[in-house]
Amino acid sequence: MASITALPAKSPSSEIIATLERDGCVVVTGVIDAATREAITRELTPHLENSDAGTRLNKTYAAQGGPSDFYPGNTKRITALVTRSETFCSFVTHPLMLSTCDALLKPNCASYQVHATAALVVGPGATVQVLHREEDPFQFFKLPRPNMIVASMWAITDFTEENGGTHLVPGSHRWPVDRVAREDEVAAAEMPAGSVLMWMGGTLHGAGANRSHDDWRFGVFLSWSLGWLRQEENQYLDVPPDAARKLPKEVRNLIGYRMHAALGYADVATKQPSQTAN
């Protein structure tokens, strides 16, 4: 059976990055403490309580040509986390994440950016999600693609096989387009609260089915991409200029309020928060 390597947060970043690059995924334990988990839970809970449970998302996605089971039900989801949680911004700039992006994305771009954000609370009865790759929208690159995206899932509560811990297929980031994962090649990310699961944009993955009776799994998703790619989440609508001005400069730059080489200029009359790369 497939398995996912787990390393403690005190491990050298070079070891974590090498494991991620080799296997396409890695779990790092002990990254965020209880106080941080409590803070982000407190900040996001009011938004999650008003979120859609998944049915509407599936209908919308299927109407646009996507698979009807892409967004499992019994799951509360919200996006736009940069504007909804001050604590989340510390995830965006976490040294381990930036070191990883420096090593794996920076060789292919002048600067990288936040690609997508989401908070997910997955309840009992949620079904398994279809396996997919973060970089699937960029079909004009043939598999295996160059490093384009690095993704992460932050465990706010424990992730177990029973409550649907994320499924991944180690090594699939190097597979040809016609290879299909066998059941014994799929591993569940089991990790204690405070851990972070990281995976490459080319790694097959999907949410597992929550078969528990009363265990709601809470995770925070965050991905980064090459600075010249179109972001999956439109940060300029989620974080308009007036809101972006209030953010730390590093966060503002990472969500896209800076130029990438000659891309992304704007009329200075619009008074954007930042127009130059650092």
SSE order in H/E notation? Answer: EHEHHEHHHEEEEEEEHHH
Assembly of the depicted chains: single chain
- Cα distance, first to last residue? 45 Å
Strand proportion, as a percent range, falls in: 15-25%
Determine the number of helices (DSSP H or I, runs of at least 4 residues).
Answer: 9
* Mean pLDDT, all residues: 91
DSSP strand tally: 10
Low-confidence stretches: none
Strand order of the largest sheet: 1-2-8-5-10-4-3
Main sheet characteristics = 7 strands, mixed
Shape: globular
Helix content: 10-25%
Structural class by secondary-structure content? alpha+beta
How much is the radius of gyration in Å?
Answer: 18 Å
Would you kindly provide a brief summary of this structure?
The chain has about 280 residues and is of the alpha+beta class. Helices cover about 25% and strands about 20% of the residues.
Can you characterise this structure?
Strand 1, helix 1 (about 15-25) and strand 2 (about 25-30) form a beta-alpha-beta unit. Helix 1 (about 15-25) crosses helix 6 (about 95-105). By secondary structure, the protein is α+β, with helices and mostly antiparallel strands. The protein is built from nine helices and ten strands. The mean pLDDT is about 90. The chain is globular. The strands form two sheets. It has a seven-stranded mixed sheet with strand order 1-2-8-5-10-4-3. Strands 7-6-9 form a three-stranded antiparallel sheet, with no helix packed on it. The longest helix has 16 residues, at about 35-50. The termini are far apart.
